[in-house]
């Protein structure tokens, strides 16, 4: 993996939801990126940190979380290759949540200074990154509704179907299967359920012939029915530049 491959992954993901001209692509390709391998559950940035660079997820998965009173953790987002989970650190200097590796992953760190210079000199890039943060906010809104008002089976199916839909958009699924190394405990922290409840939900989804989740691999068995159970409308992902 090299810098060119890293920016290619970023551009591929951005092109799903935005229009990027050749000059802007060249400007993004010119960004200095320092690649780093990170191990499973390794902290990338933590609450209270003042990062001097944004991290581009090049390979693997990342999750964001907050710890509330009593030490309980709420997972607030899962991120896939091409995402910049802490892009807000460019203008919000102190991080208010944790960013952690989910499985082994590869990150590309982009220092704030050249990234700020890029958005100052390339207004289109600034708009692209602004739209990206707005889509991030749309996903947060959907997660609030998901945890607050859907049933246990629906909210679990929804998170899995979201990951599947986003990975499929960048050709990272194969025969309706994808790698996702989350434990049932972590999934529970994302959907507000205990690990025992998540286990029951996963068994029910498998028995209904909707999906199979084994050894870090999710296989969608009936896409249409799973989408229905998940109460899933992809509009909030804005996977088309016109949306």
Automatic annotation (TrEMBL):
Taking every annotated instance into account, which residue ranges of this chain make up the domain HTH crp-type?
A: 150-224
SMART domains with a match to the protein in the record: HTH_CRP
- What organism, scientifically named, is this protein from? Bradyrhizobium retamae
Pfam families per record: cNMP_binding (PF00027), HTH_Crp_2 (PF13545)
Q: Which residues form a coiled coil?
A: none
> Any idea which GO molecular function terms this record carries?
DNA binding
Instruction: Tell me the protein's name.
Output: Crp/Fnr family transcriptional regulator
GO BP annotations listed: regulation of DNA-templated transcription
The record's keywords, sorted A to Z, are: DNA-binding, Transcription, Transcription regulation
Q: Which InterPro entries match?
A: cNMP-bd_dom, cNMP-bd_dom_sf, HTH_CRP, RmlC-like_jellyroll, WH-like_DNA-bd_sf, WH_DNA-bd_sf
């Amino acid at each position: 993996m090299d810098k060119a491959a890293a920016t290619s992954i970023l551009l591929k993901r951005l092109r799903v939801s935005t229009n990027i001209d050749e000059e802007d692509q060249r400007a993004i390709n010119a960004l200095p990126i320092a690649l780093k391998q990170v191990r499973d559950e390794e902290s990338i940035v933590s609450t209270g940190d003042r990062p001097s660079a944004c991290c581009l997820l090049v390979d693997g998965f990342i999750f964001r979380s907050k710890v509330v009173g009593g030490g309980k953790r709420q997972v607030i987002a899962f991120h896939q290759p091409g995402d910049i989970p802490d892009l807000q650190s460019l203008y919000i200097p102190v991080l208010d949540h944790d960013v952690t590796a989910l499985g082994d992953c590869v990150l590309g760190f982009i220092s704030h200074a050249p990234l700020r210079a890029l958005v100052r000199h390339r207004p289109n890039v600034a708009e692209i990154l602004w739209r990206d943060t707005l889509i991030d906010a749309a996903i947060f809104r959907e997660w609030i509704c998901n945890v607050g008002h859907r049933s246990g089976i629906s909210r679990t199916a929804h998170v899995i179907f979201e990951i599947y839909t986003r990975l499929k958009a960048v050709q990272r699924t194969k025969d309706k299967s994808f790698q996702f190394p989350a434990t049932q405990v972590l999934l529970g922290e994302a959907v507000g359920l205990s690990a025992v409840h998540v286990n029951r939900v996963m068994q029910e989804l498998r028995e209904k012939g909707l999906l199979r989740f084994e050894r870090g691999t999710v296989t969608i068995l009936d896409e249409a029915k799973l989408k229905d159970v998940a109460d899933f409308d992809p509009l909030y992902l804005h996977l088309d530049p016109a949306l």
